[in-house]
Amino acid sequence: MTRYIMIILVCILYAIPLIRTYQLSGPPSIMPAGHNQENNASNSREPVYLESFINDEIDGIQCHASSITSAGKNRMVSVWYAGTREGAKDVALYISFFDEKKNSWTAPGVLINREDSSGELKRYVKKIGNPVIFSDRKDRLYLFYSTVSIGGWSGTSINYKISLDRGTTWTASRKMVLSPFLNLTNNVKNKGIVLDDGSIVLPVYHEFIKKYSQMVRIQPDTYEIEYKITKATHEHKAIQPSILPNEKRGLVAFFRNMDRDERKYILMAESSDLGHTWTALQNTTLPHPNSGFDMIMLSNGSYLGSINKAFHNRDNLTLVISSDRGRTWKELKVIENNPDNEYSYPSISRSDRGLLHITYTYERKRIKHIVFNEAWILSQNAYDN
To answer: Is residue 3 part of a domain?
Structure first.
């Protein structure tokens, strides 16, 4: 009898991992917002709203296309490109870290320049730009950036680097092969979204001759990635998608509108299968001057966006919020508004503590940073009709 009991116990012990595997198997879904928050400062009752600059202004140097993400341990990390002008040979990608407790940025340093990129990729690189950085559930950091070997931005290729120590060291650059046509005209602007199986959906776009967006499904490994690509739009006017959760297996994407209409609006489309197929494009109610923007989902399911809220020019930067998944929008705060100056290409991310961080191009001279919590959003009467 004792022998049979022991056999039964052994079978139960061996069955537990199988049961867990069965429960965790099946199609992936979207991870909840703020899944790794250690101390959710966004839920603090006291509103927080702070502004700072990441870098100093330097005569003759332009800064643009920043990206920000969590680097763990109460730190954020931001990257951007800077040089004498966009596309110049002296343009490099810069990196800086933000300490949430000290409310301070480290001195910016060069993450990679054109010459180093050429050496790592083992091919000629004429210019670099558009860095996108984000982290996964294992605290790995991913940097995606564009390079051009010949021609202009319509001839870009996407490359990536990985950091296993939250940005201290990085792997050599690797090229992503996303097109059979000389692997040209693929570019990035906004962060990816992490699924609960650890895979990543990265939005990319194509703008040579025909302008459309694609989704790259990435399966991370330690030092490199595996990936496959699917088309997200068939109308030739939507690029630089910002993707957010919609339901458990749903996504919504908001697109930069490259149409020639005098009055354009930010575009949107939805997917019920994590980006494999998408609905037709439709206009949102958000006016749009053909400029980059970014969006994020808040803890209550509302969408927060940072956009140039105008039909022309990039001289204002505005926070907008939607409580009905992008159907209608309310203006939350005008961050910048100064005619004849540029405030553009924002990037939004949430820290492990739940604080919301935005970086953006400030007059092409500096990268500006704002940080706030959801208590501040509530204090702005964001959800009042």
So the answer is: no
